[in-house]
Amino acid sequence: NAGVMQNPRHLVRRRGQEARLRCSPMKGHSHVYWYRQLPEEGLKFMVYLQKENIIDESGMPKERFSAEFPKEGPSILRIQQVVRGDSAAYFCASSPSRDVFMDTQYFGPGTRLTVL
Amino acid sequence: RKEVEQDPGPFNVPEGATVAFNCTYSNSASQSFFWYRQDCRKEPKLLMSVYSSGNEDGRFTAQLNRASQYISLLIRDSKLSDSATYLCVVNHSGGYQKVTFGIGTKLQVIP
Protein backbone atom coordinates (compact mmCIF):
# COMPACT_ATOMS: atom_id res chain seq x y z
CA ASN A 1 0.00 0.00 0.00
CA ALA A 2 1.82 3.04 -1.24
CA GLY A 3 1.96 6.04 1.03
CA VAL A 4 1.00 9.58 0.19
CA MET A 5 2.79 10.63 -2.96
CA GLN A 6 3.76 14.11 -3.95
CA ASN A 7 5.40 15.41 -7.05
CA PRO A 8 7.54 17.02 -7.95
CA ARG A 9 9.78 16.71 -4.92
CA HIS A 10 11.66 19.85 -5.87
CA LEU A 11 10.36 22.68 -7.98
CA VAL A 12 12.20 25.80 -9.05
CA ARG A 13 10.28 28.72 -10.49
CA ARG A 14 11.12 32.29 -11.39
CA ARG A 15 9.05 35.12 -10.01
CA GLY A 16 5.79 35.47 -11.90
CA GLN A 17 5.59 31.86 -13.06
CA GLU A 18 3.02 29.30 -11.98
CA ALA A 19 3.69 26.38 -9.67
CA ARG A 20 1.58 23.21 -9.68
CA LEU A 21 2.02 20.76 -6.86
CA ARG A 22 0.41 17.32 -6.96
CA CYS A 23 -0.65 15.00 -4.20
CA SER A 24 -1.99 11.46 -4.46
CA PRO A 25 -3.46 10.32 -1.15
CA MET A 26 -3.01 6.88 0.29
CA LYS A 27 -5.25 4.23 -1.19
CA GLY A 28 -8.63 4.36 0.50
CA HIS A 29 -8.15 7.90 1.79
CA SER A 30 -10.63 10.49 0.61
CA HIS A 31 -9.52 13.44 2.72
CA VAL A 32 -6.60 15.63 1.70
CA TYR A 33 -4.93 18.44 3.62
CA TRP A 34 -2.29 20.85 2.38
CA TYR A 35 0.23 22.52 4.68
CA ARG A 36 3.03 24.97 4.14
CA GLN A 37 6.22 25.03 6.16
CA LEU A 38 8.33 28.14 5.87
CA PRO A 39 12.00 27.93 6.87
CA GLU A 40 12.38 27.71 10.67
CA GLU A 41 8.60 27.77 11.15
CA GLY A 42 5.92 25.22 11.98
CA LEU A 43 3.50 23.68 9.56
CA LYS A 44 0.59 25.93 8.72
CA PHE A 45 -2.74 24.54 7.55
CA MET A 46 -3.79 25.77 4.14
CA VAL A 47 -6.77 23.82 2.86
CA TYR A 48 -8.82 20.69 3.42
CA LEU A 49 -10.48 18.92 0.51
CA GLN A 50 -12.58 15.91 -0.19
CA LYS A 51 -13.22 14.59 -3.66
CA GLU A 52 -14.59 17.46 -5.75
CA ASN A 53 -15.15 19.64 -2.69
CA ILE A 54 -13.18 22.26 -0.83
CA ILE A 55 -14.26 21.95 2.78
CA ASP A 56 -12.06 24.51 4.48
CA GLU A 57 -9.69 26.91 2.78
CA SER A 58 -9.30 29.26 5.72
CA GLY A 59 -5.52 28.90 5.66
CA MET A 60 -5.10 29.74 2.00
CA PRO A 61 -3.89 33.19 0.97
CA LYS A 62 -6.79 34.96 -0.71
CA GLU A 63 -4.94 35.63 -3.92
CA ARG A 64 -2.84 33.52 -6.27
CA PHE A 65 -3.45 30.23 -4.44
CA SER A 66 -6.03 27.61 -5.36
CA ALA A 67 -6.56 23.93 -4.73
CA GLU A 68 -8.64 21.16 -6.17
CA PHE A 69 -9.23 17.48 -5.67
CA PRO A 70 -11.02 16.16 -8.77
CA LYS A 71 -13.04 13.00 -8.97
CA GLU A 72 -10.20 11.37 -10.84
CA GLY A 73 -6.54 12.10 -10.33
CA PRO A 74 -4.44 13.78 -7.69
CA SER A 75 -5.14 16.84 -5.63
CA ILE A 76 -3.44 19.92 -7.04
CA LEU A 77 -2.23 23.02 -5.26
CA ARG A 78 -1.72 25.83 -7.72
CA ILE A 79 0.22 29.00 -7.07
CA GLN A 80 0.00 31.68 -9.71
CA GLN A 81 2.55 34.45 -10.21
CA VAL A 82 4.89 33.10 -7.57
CA VAL A 83 6.91 35.45 -5.39
CA ARG A 84 10.05 34.77 -3.35
CA GLY A 85 7.97 34.55 -0.18
CA ASP A 86 6.25 31.45 -1.60
CA SER A 87 9.50 29.50 -1.24
CA ALA A 88 8.71 26.79 1.28
CA ALA A 89 8.04 23.10 1.74
CA TYR A 90 4.48 22.17 0.86
CA PHE A 91 3.21 19.01 2.50
CA CYS A 92 0.13 17.06 1.65
CA ALA A 93 -1.52 14.73 4.14
CA SER A 94 -4.40 12.33 3.81
CA SER A 95 -6.73 10.56 6.19
CA PRO A 96 -9.31 7.85 5.66
CA SER A 97 -12.30 9.40 7.37
CA ARG A 98 -13.58 12.26 9.46
CA ASP A 99 -13.15 10.42 12.73
CA VAL A 100 -11.32 13.07 14.62
CA PHE A 101 -10.50 10.84 17.56
CA MET A 102 -9.18 7.72 16.01
CA ASP A 103 -7.62 8.74 12.75
CA THR A 104 -4.53 10.65 12.07
CA GLN A 105 -3.02 12.23 9.04
CA TYR A 106 -0.33 10.62 6.96
CA PHE A 107 2.08 12.95 5.24
CA GLY A 108 3.67 12.85 1.86
CA PRO A 109 7.38 13.65 1.40
CA GLY A 110 6.63 17.23 0.46
CA THR A 111 7.44 19.49 -2.45
CA ARG A 112 10.18 22.03 -1.88
CA LEU A 113 9.42 25.12 -3.91
CA THR A 114 12.19 27.58 -4.58
CA VAL A 115 11.34 30.87 -6.24
CA LEU A 116 14.27 32.64 -7.84
CA ARG B 1 -1.06 33.79 22.58
CA LYS B 2 -0.27 31.07 20.05
CA GLU B 3 -2.70 28.17 19.75
CA VAL B 4 0.08 25.66 20.35
CA GLU B 5 3.35 26.66 21.98
CA GLN B 6 6.58 24.75 22.21
CA ASP B 7 10.09 25.62 23.24
CA PRO B 8 12.01 25.40 19.95
CA GLY B 9 15.21 24.35 21.74
CA PRO B 10 17.62 22.99 20.73
CA PHE B 11 17.90 20.50 23.53
CA ASN B 12 21.37 18.98 23.46
CA VAL B 13 21.52 15.85 25.60
CA PRO B 14 24.05 13.02 25.97
CA GLU B 15 23.21 9.50 24.89
CA GLY B 16 21.35 7.65 27.60
CA ALA B 17 19.85 10.77 29.13
CA THR B 18 16.18 11.32 29.84
CA VAL B 19 14.63 14.38 28.24
CA ALA B 20 11.16 15.88 28.48
CA PHE B 21 9.31 18.31 26.26
CA ASN B 22 6.20 20.26 27.09
CA CYS B 23 3.63 21.79 24.84
CA THR B 24 0.81 24.13 25.85
CA TYR B 25 -2.39 24.73 23.94
CA SER B 26 -4.85 27.59 24.25
CA ASN B 27 -8.14 26.09 23.07
CA SER B 28 -9.79 24.31 25.97
CA ALA B 29 -12.14 22.59 23.53
CA SER B 30 -9.27 20.74 21.86
CA GLN B 31 -10.18 17.13 21.36
CA SER B 32 -7.14 15.06 20.57
CA PHE B 33 -3.41 15.37 20.75
CA PHE B 34 -0.43 13.87 19.02
CA TRP B 35 3.33 13.96 18.95
CA TYR B 36 4.95 13.84 15.53
CA ARG B 37 8.60 13.52 14.69
CA GLN B 38 10.18 15.40 11.82
CA ASP B 39 13.67 14.68 10.59
CA CYS B 40 15.57 17.38 8.77
CA ARG B 41 13.97 18.13 5.40
CA LYS B 42 11.58 15.20 5.72
CA GLU B 43 7.86 14.89 6.30
CA PRO B 44 6.34 14.70 9.79
CA LYS B 45 5.62 11.19 11.00
CA LEU B 46 3.29 10.21 13.79
CA LEU B 47 5.19 9.25 16.91
CA MET B 48 2.28 8.65 19.23
CA SER B 49 -1.19 9.78 20.14
CA VAL B 50 -1.68 11.25 23.59
CA TYR B 51 -4.48 9.84 25.69
CA SER B 52 -6.06 11.30 28.80
CA SER B 53 -4.73 8.46 30.92
CA GLY B 54 -1.23 8.85 29.55
CA ASN B 55 0.42 6.29 27.36
CA GLU B 56 3.77 4.68 26.87
CA ASP B 57 5.47 3.18 23.85
CA GLY B 58 8.86 1.73 24.66
CA ARG B 59 11.14 4.56 25.72
CA PHE B 60 8.51 7.19 24.99
CA THR B 61 5.82 8.36 27.40
CA ALA B 62 3.16 10.93 26.61
CA GLN B 63 0.98 12.72 29.15
CA LEU B 64 -2.00 15.03 28.88
CA ASN B 65 -3.03 17.57 31.51
CA ARG B 66 -6.34 19.07 30.47
CA ALA B 67 -6.64 21.28 33.55
CA SER B 68 -3.39 23.04 32.75
CA GLN B 69 -3.75 22.58 29.01
CA TYR B 70 -0.45 20.99 28.24
CA ILE B 71 0.93 17.75 26.92
CA SER B 72 4.33 16.29 27.49
CA LEU B 73 6.70 13.82 25.90
CA LEU B 74 9.33 11.97 27.88
CA ILE B 75 12.14 10.12 26.17
CA ARG B 76 14.19 7.76 28.29
CA ASP B 77 17.62 6.36 27.44
CA SER B 78 18.08 8.72 24.50
CA LYS B 79 19.63 7.30 21.34
CA LEU B 80 21.51 9.15 18.64
CA SER B 81 18.67 8.21 16.30
CA ASP B 82 16.24 10.19 18.46
CA SER B 83 17.79 13.40 17.13
CA ALA B 84 14.95 15.16 15.33
CA THR B 85 12.34 17.85 15.78
CA TYR B 86 9.32 16.84 17.84
CA LEU B 87 6.05 18.45 16.84
CA CYS B 88 3.12 18.88 19.17
CA VAL B 89 -0.18 18.58 17.30
CA VAL B 90 -3.58 19.55 18.64
CA ASN B 91 -6.89 18.69 17.03
CA HIS B 92 -9.56 21.29 17.62
CA SER B 93 -12.29 19.30 15.96
CA GLY B 94 -15.01 21.17 14.17
CA GLY B 95 -16.26 18.23 12.23
CA TYR B 96 -12.97 17.15 10.75
CA GLN B 97 -9.34 17.01 11.65
CA LYS B 98 -8.60 20.65 12.06
CA VAL B 99 -5.16 20.40 13.56
CA THR B 100 -2.61 22.94 14.62
CA PHE B 101 1.08 22.17 14.73
CA GLY B 102 3.51 23.59 17.18
CA ILE B 103 6.76 24.98 15.85
CA GLY B 104 8.54 21.89 17.14
CA THR B 105 11.27 21.22 19.67
CA LYS B 106 14.64 20.28 18.27
CA LEU B 107 16.47 17.48 20.02
CA GLN B 108 20.13 16.69 19.43
CA VAL B 109 21.48 13.59 21.15
CA ILE B 110 25.23 13.79 21.53
CA PRO B 111 27.57 10.76 21.68
Structural descriptors:
heterodimer; A: 116 residues; mainly beta; seven-stranded mixed β-sheet; four-stranded antiparallel β-sheet; 11 strands; B: 111 residues; five-stranded antiparallel β-sheet
Could you explain the architecture of this structure?
The complex is a heterodimer of chains A (116) and B (111). Chain A is mainly beta and 116 residues long. Chain A is built from no helices and eleven strands. In chain A, the strands form two sheets. In chain A, strands 2, 4, 5, 6, 9, 10 and 11 form a seven-stranded mixed beta sheet that branches. Chain B is an all-beta fold. In chain B, the strands form two sheets. In chain B, strands 2, 4, 5, 9, 10 and 11 form a six-stranded mixed beta sheet that branches. A five-stranded antiparallel beta sheet of chain B has the order 1-3-8-7-6, with no helix packed on it. In chain B, a hairpin with a 4-residue loop joins strand 7 and strand 8. Chain B starts with a strand and ends with a strand. At the A-B interface, strand 4, strand 5, strand 9 and strand 10 of A face strand 5 and strand 10 of B.
